[in-house]
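[job 0412] stage=fold_complex status=start
inputs:
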Amino acid sequence: MIKAILIFNNHGKPRLSKFYEHYTEDTEQQIIRETFHLVSKRDENVCNFLEGGMLIGGSDYKLIYRHYATLYFVFCVDSSESELGILDLIQVFVETLDKCFENVCELDLIFHVDKVHNILAEMVMGGMVLETNMNEIITQVDAQNKMEKAETFIFQSTRQDR
Amino acid sequence: MALKIVKGSIDRMFDKNLQDLVRGIRNHKEDEAKYISTCIDEIKQELKQDNIAVKANAVCKLTYLQMLGYDVSWAAFNIVEVMSSSKFTYKRIGYLAASQCFHESTDVIMLTTNQIRKDLSSPNQYDTGVALTGLSCFVTPDLARDLANDIMTLMSHTKPYIRKKAVLIMYKVFLKYPESLRPAFPRLKEKLEDPDPGVQSAAVNVICELARRNPKNYLSLAPLFFKLMTSSTNNWVLIKIIKLFGALTPLEPRLGKKLIEPLTNLIHSTSAMSLLYECVNTVIAVLISLSSGMPNHSASIQLCVQKLRILIEDSDQNLKYLGLLAMSKILKTHPKSVQSHKDLILQCLDDKDESIRLRALDLLYGMVSKKNLMEIVKKLMLHVDKAEGTTYRDELLTKIIDICSQSNYQYITNFEWYISILVELTRLEGTRHGHLIASQMLDVAIRVKAIRVFAVAQMATLLDNAHLLTGNMQRNGICEVLYAAAWICGEFSEHLENPMQTLEAMLRPKVATLPGHIQAVYVQNAAKLFATVLKSQEGNTDSTAAQETSQLMIDRLPLFVQSANLEVQERASCILQLVKYIQKLQQKDVEVAEEVTALFAGELNPVAPKAQKKVPVPEGLDLDAWINEPPSESESEDEQPKAIFAKEEPKHSRPRHTEVDEKELARRREARKQEQANNPFYIKASPSSQKVYQEAPGVEHIPVVQIDLSVPLKVPGLPMSDQYVKLEEERRQKARADKKKKEKKKRKEKHSGRGKKHDSGPESEEDIAPAHQVDIVTEEMPENALPSDDDDKDPNDPHKALDIDLDKPLADSEKLPVRSHRAAEALKSPAEDGETENAASQEPKKKSSKEKREKKKDKDRERKKSKEEKKKKKKHKHEEKEEDLLGGQADESVVQSDETSMVAEPPTSTSAEVSDLDFWLSNAPVPSNTQEAVTVAAAAEAAPEPEAPSGAAPDSEPDEPKDTEMEETKSSKHKKKKQKKEKEEKEKKKKKKHHHHHHHSDGGGEESVQNGTVEEEEPLPPMSNYCLLAENSYIKMMMEDIEQVYDIQGNLQDGSQVVVSVIFENKCDSFLKSMEFNVLDSLNSKLQRPEGSGPHDGLTVPFQLPPGVSNEARFVFTVQSIVMSQKLKGTLTFIVKNEDSSTHEKLDFKLHFTCTSYLITTPCYSDAFAKLLESGDLKGSSVRLEGVNMPFHHLLARICFHHHFSVVERIDSCASMYSRSIQGHHVCLLVKTSGQTVCIDAKCDEPTLLGNVLDEIKQTFSQC
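[job 0412] stage=fold_complex status=done
writing structure:
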């Protein structure tokens, strides 16, 4: 199970947080801070696994992260997930973002966090991996965006009618 | 009016959207909080408007603010409003917001039930998808209960997109509403074979999560997963399945054996590192589960280690990390294979990555040997000095202590070195582990007698320099070591060089700043020191010195009397008064030293930490009953188990009378006291236990003084461990030299060098003689000690509720709550179905065969229908889907058995599935390879009853014990008819039957293991299934009841395998090693030896025995014919190794394979039993036992226990019993008793076997 997915930048500013278990807002922020603290002090070429976040999990849990340019992608998972598998998943996630936003950069995530959520929802659901095939993910995301566009169009036209 | 509308829409155009909000926040970096609060006010305004678009926009912004840490739960209702919008755009916004901030205690959630249900059944798949995604985050028990059925319906949706989401969310539903698991499970299982890989993967995912927590319930799915594993190409699915197998193998070693090969293939073939890694992990798990005595899988382990080495050597830090992680798992069971990669692991200790260093540290634990311990620890000490963060340093500290103290300090050859390491560690500032160091100091000082002189000297230095340790003690855990130091100096004060100085150090005013518990120890031990000092001073003629000492105490103690700590205060007051009294006496010139010393006389011995907790209540002892004895007796109770463990147990567990009279009690008590008197580990009031140690040659004579000179004690610094490394090197060299000398002249070395007492025998590199005798109380627990703290599961674990037997047929009451009328109707038929099935299993007699056949047809029809439905792709969703569900219970199992055995028989009960599993496991070929499986099965068919008479018999036999629910219900007439019919159903059918057969003997195997359960039911005299094999002054061998793990494996050539457990107990006080177990094979019975060894080679017993220890080894024998009892001659050879010699010893024994031991306790139903007797192919025999003087139920229990029978029926003084042999012979007994005569009528299809079994029974009762 994946317990949480966090994206934050080099300064620890959250860009996306998805917790698959309930925490209060304060705890969530604390977890983000703690995770950032743990992850940010690590060198570039050390391993991507980290044990021992105090707030989340316990001994069974691991932080698996990747660092892309200005962003950290952190997955907090338990022992039922394969470590290397999750690393792949992060890669798929980032590549998907790259496809959907066309050369994704931090700004895309800043201004379109809702879209990032929607893409993530096609990959991970309730803490379990739903889909790992990038093409399939993009197909579904596109189809939904198309639907949304159609609706906005109708919506706008009705608005203009009035 | 129109204007107003225009104005409204213009307003709306100027509303901030999410992007504006984000931009705004970025532009207000200085007063972010203020800006956001105005934004929230705006949002509140927006939420008040009717326009859903505005609301959605507001909610979208709130979701963003929630991420920044703002509580938005106040808008929960608005979120629900947005969720219920008909537009997908808004709906999605609403569900996203809900998934981010709803949780179980959000009260508006209950308003959403109907909305979610509506969305779930929406014609638009994305509406459904969004609802499912959202629900997965905030599902509550109520929602789960109300929506379970809807989601289950979606599991068979036409669109794979919905199916996979529905399947995944079921896991969350199960967690919240465990009752849904059983009804939904069949369909979930079905989804494992969904044509869409995504759905399949989702189903695998869910089942893996479920099985991870409660693996045993999912064992029956193993064949299916195995098939998936061999067929799937999706690495995600493979990884999950392989992980799942890792969880299952500990429960079923046979599964492990089956897995090894395909996993090895995958390891060789895959290019995906993730998959490779998981394969290696699971192979390790398999090897761990097989490690108990099974033939070597050294090739597999070698492969794993090899692959892991490649990972560790990789430049990718991730692989390195994982490699080390997996290595540590191997380490537990196969330390040897890991040790060969020591270089690599030591190298990782220098890695710049902390995670990797930590993992390498874990591995070090298994890397050490006597030879390299010092070197490794030295390296670690260097790291300690270099370590920057306290976490890593603390980790290092604990590891150093772990490594050194493992298995009773096995690898420490020089305890002076170890003490100095500990002392060196005390120099760490700010460590949290002061208490750890302290407990090690105490442990070593108490248990290693020879080190006390040295330890005391070191501790005195520590006390003297306490100010160094307690610099800023408020946050300093290290002052804990003073606790140990004070205690050691006090308790062993006779070794102090200058006790007066230490006494002064302990009474310094600064001590009062230490934590209370340490002060208390200081005070108490100051008193002990005082006693020692007095003793030495009174020896001199000058009495003033002694009086000065008393004065010192009287001056300093009041400081402690004022302590706020109660303990300190109390002790100080007592001791102060005592000293005052002593002073008075001294002034009268009375010699008091002797008496004062007597206050602290006596040796304190170490006791295993949980020894007392683990003491089981001895047989025949009622703790509540009043004992006519002074209460002091209760103390000795604590020690009793040790005696039991040593040798009393076998005797005592078989008392002739359940009630023990007073005399007997007294006698036992006497015996126990005697026992304790001879037990070195028993704490006695008198210091006589010392004798035991003195007998150990030369402990007292170790010239430790020598070292003391080389220790810079006079330097006010602390000692350096490095010196001891050098000293130890010298010592070892010297020992080596001595050894050479010894070769020239025997026994000369006895007087040379220090620490010599152990330096004897061949000094192989691995057993370097330790410099000190470790006096260790092996923490053995009584044999039947209660596992007191195994069960440390979290009671709040939601997964506990999911520990549900999934194989039981579904009961009517269990179906999911259904709302819609139509669905309810559709569900009715499966409910009926379930009911009838239930009825069938509970009251089989009421059912006519006609009904049954009809039902069968019915089922067939249903099955066909459901299959057709599947083909039609389920166009008419509701009705058909419900009906499909109806097929559920029967249908899904059919699907399964279809692949494994191609048999279409309606599986009705657990036994069917389990037997499938058993068959699958016991059968070597892969299930997909049906052709082969069939032939093997056919061959196996013949095996169990090779001499069965022709006619109906061969069929009826295997039938009986198995399908108890169905077959037995019919009269034999009907049955034969049916059998004819069955016969026409080709071989397949036969094979299926055979599963049952197999299953039963297997199930019996388990039963016999749990034989003890019989005892629980009635108050019975205890029985032991251990019998003494042979015994001499060195070793005792006991054999446990023979136990068969495998039944016939499909062909007669293999014969049957039986496993014999032998307990070896070391009775002498020397080390027993290189034990070899050998048996002279007979034509009929052969010891299974590893491949490549000759028929007369012995088997090495895989352990060594330190003094007083016992261990169990298992040996596998192949037995051809089981109708006769057998005696096998065997020998055990071993090397007795003590301090100065090692001798080869031999012990002959006879293994007695009774016929009884080939019987397996097998439950049998009375009607099956009756039919068995009716069938007429059993030969009868009978036996009479005279003078049996025991209650009838004891008699039965004895037969059950010693001869592996089970009671079929008991009426008054008459009982029928049943058992079957490992080769499938039925043995039926009718036991009648009148007075002291017991009459046993017996029937069996193998008269020789029966005769022998009866003889054995007779013998059992003649012995008592």
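[job 0412] summary: The beta strands of chain A are 2-9, 14-19, 49-51, 62-68, 71-77, 124-125, 128-129.
[job 0412] exit 0
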